[in-house]
Amino acid sequence: MRNELLSTAEMAEADRLTIAAGSLDGYGLMQRAGEAVAALVLARHPGAKRVHILCGPGNNGGDGYVVARLLAEAGVDVALWASGEPRAGGDAALAAAACTLERRPLSTLTAEAGSLVVDAIYGAGLSKPLTGDAKAAVDIVTGMNLPVVAIDLPSGISGDSGEVLGSAFRAALTVTFARKKPGHLLLPGRERCGEIVLADIGIRDEIIDQIAPRTFENRPGLWIANLPAPAVDAHKYKRGHTSVFSGGPSATGAARLSALAAARSGAGAVTVLSPANAMQVNAAHLTSIMLRKVDAIEDVDDLIGDRRPSTFVLGPGFGIGDKARDFTLAVLAKDRQDGGVEGLVLDADGITSFRNAASTLYEAAGRPDAPALIMTPHEGEFGRLFADIAGNKALSKLAKAREAAQRANAVIVYKGADSVIASPDGRAAINSNGAPWLATAGSGDVLAGIIAGLLAQGMPAFEATCAGVWIHAEAGSRFGPGLIAEDLPLAIVPVLRQLVENTVR
Ligand SMILES: NC(=O)C1=CN([C@@H]2O[C@H](COP(=O)(O)OP(=O)(O)OC[C@H]3O[C@@H](n4cnc5c(N)ncnc54)[C@H](OP(=O)(O)O)[C@@H]3O)[C@@H](O)[C@H]2O)[C@@H](O)CC1
Ligand SMILES: Nc1ncnc2c1ncn2[C@@H]1O[C@H](COP(=O)(O)OP(=O)(O)O)[C@@H](O)[C@H]1O
Ligand SMILES: [K+]
């Protein structure tokens, strides 16, 4: 399965290029779209007593008129409700003319229990909040709890941001075309779509290649080719060495969670870097993971010269302040070339420590040959570092992550139930395989460790981050109820096995 996501503008461009290529005209695409939806309605609801089809004024409504005609021809009892009139001469007007069913104004909508609703009011062209007859229709259908099949998007959901504009349907099934859109995966859109079916309407892969989308659904196909597997002649340091900075004596657990996760994700060697006063408590809880005393920048330099760790995690349980900033900048000052430091995963307190010194961090990360910087902020941490971006209501979560990545010269994971991963080179991916079981203390520490572990094994920063987010989410979702962060490092093992065996996509 291909992983590209198309913005609504890119989808319109795909439409235009397909028509220009001469294989199908706009009306032909609309027929194919309507046929796909009608076939799914018949397959999923063979016993539907009555189907109400709600058509808007644009091409989404045009798809609806095609569905109405096809279902009526198949013997289904169809009621057709229209909001506005399609533009004369357009494809939707042609589709409406080809449908001879009686049309009633959407503002007079009534439905009966047990009936099904096909939502063809607005799709990719949604341009403002739902009002009037469309909003009233949402209220009626939602109030009656009728099952809804949405064409392209549930009306009221923005295809680009996943936001609800005014109000929106909650669909049981959403049928979209060619590729998913960001609004199918970003919340609350994802929840409003129900099951998402992708229908082929004749927009060829070459057309999508021409558009070269920069946004992806985060699935293994995006990074599986880069997933590390140990070479026959591997030894522990060749498999990558990750070091994790520990906090003081009363805050060491978070670093150990990260360290364990880095080890489980395949780093051959992992070291916890501990302040002297926390050595004893760390030592009491570590077995295969190594331990080294690090109190000052010279200790970091010695470690790098000596044991050559290629990746670092800084932040989990570390404490906020000068020390976090100094250590971060010391790591970022190293070179990447010739077996140097590949990258730093900055999480939690590491991120917060730069709230008043952000430009120093971004400059350090932007130096040519600097280690890759990966930051994993949750909502609160994101707002602390990127207050203006976070507060910009015109930007979707996807656009916010992208802008932050570009500004910070860093790969950003904007965490949450719909985590977005963005690279400074403009690529971005939206994750959708998580589950609320992951909302447990220490879960983010594990994520930071997985990413650092994959990065240490030579995976490029964006791919390692996407893989880390997916593996973490998959492990947590599969584990389900009762999950605590301590379970996660072990829970990633069956997920990794399936990835290595290529039995999960
Ligand atoms: N691209 C493709 O490849 C294919 C696309 N196809 C289908 O086309 C759909 C996109 O069609 P579309 O561009 O005509 O947009 P659509 O969603 O029908 O709405 C536009 C109309 O609604 C109006 N309007 C919007 N919001 C409103 C509001 N809140 N309240 C009131 N009015 C509002 C808007 O008005 P305006 O913004 O101009 O003021 C305009 O009149 C797409 O989702 C898919 O189903 C398929 O046929 C197959 C191939
Ligand atoms: N409702 C949810 N659905 C899916 N994933 C979630 C949900 N809530 C949190 N997560 C994931 O769990 C992790 C929590 O990380 P974080 O907020 O840093 O927690 P902590 O600081 O306790 O480690 C993130 O990877 C986040 O994406
Ligand atoms: K719709």
Automatic annotation (TrEMBL):
Q: Any idea which UniProt keywords this protein has?
A: ATP-binding, Isomerase, Lyase, Metal-binding, Multifunctional enzyme, NAD, NADP, Nucleotide-binding, Potassium
Annotated residues for binding of AMP: K415, G416, A417, D418, S419, G444
Q: Which Pfam families match?
A: Carb_kinase, YjeF_N
Q: Which BP terms from GO are recorded?
A: metabolite repair; nicotinamide nucleotide metabolic process
Entries under InterPro entries matching the protein: Carbohydrate_kinase_pred_CS, CARKD, Nnr, Ribokinase-like, YjeF_N_dom, YjeF_N_dom_sf
Q: List residues of the YjeF N-terminal domain.
A: 11-209
| Cofactor annotation | K(+); Mg(2+)
Q: What Gene Ontology molecular-function terms does this entry list? A: ADP-dependent NAD(P)H-hydrate dehydratase activity; ATP binding; metal ion binding; NAD(P)HX epimerase activity
Q: How is the cofactor bound?
A: Binds 1 potassium ion per subunit.
User: EC number(s) of the enzyme?
Assistant: 4.2.1.136, 5.1.99.6
Top-rank taxon: Bacteria
The catalytic activity, as recorded, is:
(6S)-NADHX + ADP = AMP + phosphate + NADH + H(+); (6R)-NADPHX = (6S)-NADPHX; (6R)-NADHX = (6S)-NADHX; (6S)-NADPHX + ADP = AMP + phosphate + NADPH + H(+)
Q: Which residues of this UniProt protein bind K(+)?
A: N60, D119, S155
Q: Which residues bind (6S)-NADPHX?
A: 59-63, 123-129, 152, 254, 317, 378, 445
- Task of the protein: Catalyzes the dehydration of the S-form of NAD(P)HX at the expense of ADP, which is converted to AMP. Together with NAD(P)HX epimerase, which catalyzes the epimerization of the S- and R-forms, the enzyme allows the repair of both epimers of NAD(P)HX, a damaged form of NAD(P)H that is a result of enzymatic or heat-dependent hydration. Catalyzes the epimerization of the S- and R-forms of NAD(P)HX, a damaged form of NAD(P)H that is a result of enzymatic or heat-dependent hydration. This is a prerequisite for the S-specific NAD(P)H-hydrate dehydratase to allow the repair of both epimers of NAD(P)HX.
- Entry similarity comment: In the N-terminal section; belongs to the NnrE/AIBP family. Belongs to the NnrE/AIBP family.
What is the annotated quaternary arrangement, including any partners?
Homotetramer.
Read off the HAMAP family from this record.
NADHX_dehydratase, NADHX_epimerase
Spell out the protein name for this chain: Bifunctional NAD(P)H-hydrate repair enzyme
Q: What is the lineage of its organism?
A: Bacteria, Pseudomonadati, Pseudomonadota, Alphaproteobacteria, Hyphomicrobiales
